Amino acid sequence: MAAMSLWLPEGDAKINNLIVPLVLFPLIWACVFFYVLLERKPKRLYLTMLLLFLVNGGLVGASIMGWLS
Amino acid sequence: MIKLSKDTTKRLVDVHGWSAVVLGLALYVVVLTGSIVVFAHEIGNWSVSGHQLDHVLAGKVDTKLESLSQSVKTEYHEEVGIWQNSAGYLIAFFHTHVKNDQGLMTEKGTRFVLDPEDLSVISREDGMRDDLPVVRSGYLEQFLADLHIRLHAPDPIGLYLTGILGLVLLVLAVSGFILHRHLILDIFLSPRLSTRLLNTRDRHNLAGTWGIMFSIILAFTGAFFSFATSLGLPVIAITAFEGDQEKAIRIIVGAPDKEDATPKPFIGLESIIERVKQADVAGSVPVYISIQHMGRADAKVTTTHEPNDNTIFYKNYAFSGVTGKYLGEKPRMGTKPSIGSDLVGLMGVLHYGWFAGILSKIIWLSLGLATCYVTLTGLQLWTQRRADQVIWQRLSRLTAIIGYGTAIAMNTSAIGFLMSYARYPVSVESWTINGFFVGTGLSFAIGLLIQNQVKRNHAFQQLLGLSLLGMPLLRYLTSEQGWLTLISNDNAVVVSLDISFLIAGGICLLLSTGFLVKKKTFAKEKNIEETQVVST
């Protein structure tokens, strides 16, 4: 959710990238939760979660360090 | 039906069951209070025996507003919120925006409560929004709403709690949906009477099938409202605005980039309200008015209007605060129409169920109560399957205490409010809270002292019925407002709620006599009893 605000289009009002992640947060959480619950192959599960963590964490980290501005 | 492997089904059943066992009762409290709070405005109106005067904002308010603005600090002219509460009192809150002790943005200013008849000042309070004393006339409504929104825990903990419960409801509903084998068929399911366990399971499936989509919608929108400001906004502010929450709020709310602090006289509200009432603008009296930068060249007035026959959304209209010129419709979020703004509007419509007036509110109440029933029957199912274990029998008893007790405590809080509001208005807050604790205490006493389950449930039903019957009676005795007077004063909603409470109370008392319920003898239990009789 946090990283979404960095890549989602702003739209004319320049707020879509801020509001849409807030609205979608429960849905994103539920998708991740049920994916973890239903995935049969542990290896694929770990890889997917690691990838998600790295991509999101990297974007958030880069934003906090000011590398994206 | 969704085909699942044995392992996956077992995992889903475990998650479905254990999340309900751990947080089901707290979830029940939030959903039950939420179902009732759909009618918060009507309950607030009922609690003070109706409006004193409607549409005060359409009257002469400019002179008073001017004199109030001169009596507060100039920094509080940054924004003024004006609205009429359920009791009809006009509230004007002059404020600025500051950070609180937790580092979250909040409002600080002066709040006036005005008599709707002559606009005389009933009370004036200064301070941070969360620290201001309650507005007594609207306290019952606020008490019930706060119970639903944050379980009366301090911010942001309360919002985190209800947000987590929203996510738990989402897990329960989605896992229930995946596990459900006959979703369409179960809409017409008639609960079997072969065994108590099957009967409970069928009732759980039946109510769950009817309410599953509603539960998913409620859970999704509820989690959004809890987490949006308490967690989401600070996180978004960190990534998109280097932690500047003030800037994030300014952009989301849609404050203008350029400011002009040149002093200019404020045009007043009367001409703006006359204009917004016309059919080509809103065609109605606003329910809320916000004035930004009062007394400056960039002053702006935004009026908010309830949904009507043409729209399911609350609408905002903007006017210049210097010339009174109509500037057009103001999006809920930002300065231009956007998908984000529409999505937030949709969240409100779906969560509060206000899109078709009283009809949609009744549907929302009914489906909310169905969700409560699903929660309770789910817990019953869990404890009945483990009937030989003491710990789960304790949970069964606790389920009955919380199940009946929450409703009883809400009623006794209303009784506490009614007893204090007319005679001791200064104590309205403590009486309402004490009323809630009295109801909770009585429920625990019944639950712990009466050992026989049938007698215990009858005692709960009697107490619930008596508290429901007592509410309209006490309202009449304390306010001396009879039904004929209320109807002639355009306060029919109070009469409707009186009648609803009387009917509900009567049903509870009838249930407690066992008159309405055919004695259920489950086939297998009957066979066992018959075998025992033959063998003796």
Structure description:
- The complex is a heterodimer of chains A (69) and B (536).
- Chain A has helices spanning 4-7, 16-38, 42-65.
- By secondary structure, chain A is mainly α.
- Chain A is flat.
- Residues 532-536 of chain B have low confidence and may be disordered.
- In chain B, 58% of the residues lie in helices and 10% in strands.
- In chain B, strand 2 (90-99) and strand 3 form a beta hairpin.
- Chain B has an eight-stranded antiparallel β-sheet with strand order 4-3-2-1-5-6-7-8.
- Chain B is an alpha+beta fold and 536 residues long.
- Chain B has a domain at 52-85 and 90-134 and 255-330.
- The relative contact order of chain B is 0.11.
Secondary-structure blueprint:
The complex is a heterodimer of chains A (69) and B (536).
Chain A: H1 4-7, H2 16-38, H3 42-65
Chain B: H1 6-37, H2 40-47, H3 62-70, E1 79-84, E2 90-99, E3 105-114, E4 121-128, H4 139-150, H5 157-179, H6 196-241, H7 245-253, H8 270-276, E5 288-292, E6 300-305, E7 315-320, E8 326-330, H9 339-352, H10 357-385, H11 390-421, H12 428-449, H13 453-479, H14 483-488, H15 492-513, H16 523-535
Antiparallel strand pairs in B: 1-2, 1-5, 2-3, 3-4, 5-6, 6-7, 7-8
Helix pairs in contact in B: 1-4, 1-5, 1-10, 1-11, 2-4, 2-15, 5-6, 6-7, 6-9, 6-10, 10-11, 11-12, 11-13, 13-15
